[in-house]
Amino acid sequence: MAIFTFRAAGEITFGVGAVERLGSAIRKTGGKKVLVVVDPGLAKAEAFSKVTRSLERENLPWVLFDRVEPEPRTVIADRCGETARQEKCDFVLGVGGGSAMDTAKAAAILATNGGQARDYQGLDKVPRPGLLKGMVPTTAGTGSEVTFTAVFINEEEKKKAGINSPYLYPEMSVLDPEMTLSLPPAPTAFTGMDALAHAVESYTSRAAHSLSEIFSLEGIRLIAKSLRRAVERGSDLAARADMLLGSLLAGIGLANAGVTAVHSLSYPLGGRFRVPHGVGNGLLLPAVMEYNALSLPEKFAKIAGAMGEEVEGVPVRKAALLAVESVNRLARDVQVPLRLSDLGIPESAFPGMAEEALQVTRPLENNPRPVSLEDAIRIYRSVL
Ligand SMILES: [Fe+2]
Q: pLDDT of 162-179, one tens digit each?
């Protein structure tokens, strides 16, 4: 049995109304002045006032950074880190989807390490710990509230790349399903498919271990159970709670076992065509599952079971393919884009995209089946 280690955020608070405890959770970490990092839309939303009320109840002074953009560029993280330094904040709070949380995580390490975000893209390039940081997700989601990664587009190279460092693990995360109630159906669908990708990929990763698998498989079950309902009826608090917990569990799976070829193949979609992260992953997940299914039939059969398929008495290879069908059906039902041509990506771009995807090596090394350049092109073609 291989040795494994396991990590997540320092403290996780989960539940309806949990955001009221945000201020006291920040106090407990020792934070005294908070930089609140959001996108401009959220800064005006009702959910955001719950955050600021909780800070104010604890008499925590706070400063707003509301210039987060979707699929953020490294310069946004640089500006955010600069604001943290200038305002002498000692705590950075990311409130929002992956873009806001990733910007907050990067700003925290930039404020203490100096330099620019692009200097730290890669693995273990951050020399020193950052400011204290906490996360409040409003999507279910990226799992960024429990991971050590922050992803940005490097404009010069037109490439997406992660800053991956243990100093990015948040000291605390507060997850309140009510904070996700106003997310419209389309982003609910594609962020949910991203969470499902995290769960499936971490479960089938070559780096998966007996502890990470528990989180990944339960993440699959919760997301499969409740994503349709969360998309169809956004006000359904029970469905939103399942999704937020499912995405948290999937994020813990991802932090500890990594992701696989879905994420590698979707990076060029974000870097070159600014396709939202969840849209790219949702589109590629069924195709990559089909490519991988028969290299790990037992695990894929378990995924089918967690997705709610009847697998009792079904031969294992057939059950494995049921997992692919089940995810395909879910993607269709929640109406995420299913074809690269729907996103305006032409077949002529595939060889370049495949070459770039092959450079996103860490997830690819975790993939249960090797992926060559030709394989990558073939997978893109299968979703043309
Ligand atoms: Fe993701």
A: 999 999 999 999 999 999
- Fold for 185-382, please state it: Dehydroquinate synthase-like, alpha domain (1.20.1090)
Q: Does domain 11-180 have CATH number 3.40.50.1970?
A: yes
Rounded CA gap, 60 and 331, in Å?
Answer: 43
* pTM of the predicted protein model: 0.96
Q: How many residues does the chain have?
A: 384
Give 323-380 pLDDT, tens digit per residue: 999 999 999 999 999 999 999 999 999 999 999 999 989 899 999 999 999 999 999 9
| Residue 261, C-beta contacts closer than 8 angstroms, at least 6 positions apart | 201, 288, 291, 292, 363, 364, 367, 371, 376, 379
**From the CA of 133, how far away is ligand 1's center (Å)?**
20
Distance 303 CA to ligand 1 centre (A): 18
Domains of the chain, by residue range, sit at 11-180, 185-382
Distance CA 222, CA 325 (A): 18
Nearest to 170 by CA among 15, 322, 25, 275: 25
Separation of CA 188 and ligand 1 centre (Å): 14
- CA 359 to chain CA mean position, Å: 20
| Cα–ligand 1 centroid distance for 285 (angstroms) | 11
CA-based radius of gyration for the chain: 20
d(CA 334, ligand 1 centre) in Å: 18
CA–CA distance, 318 with 300 (Å, rounded to integer): 10
CA of 254 to the centre of ligand 1 (A): 9
Ligand 1 center to 179 CA (angstroms): 20
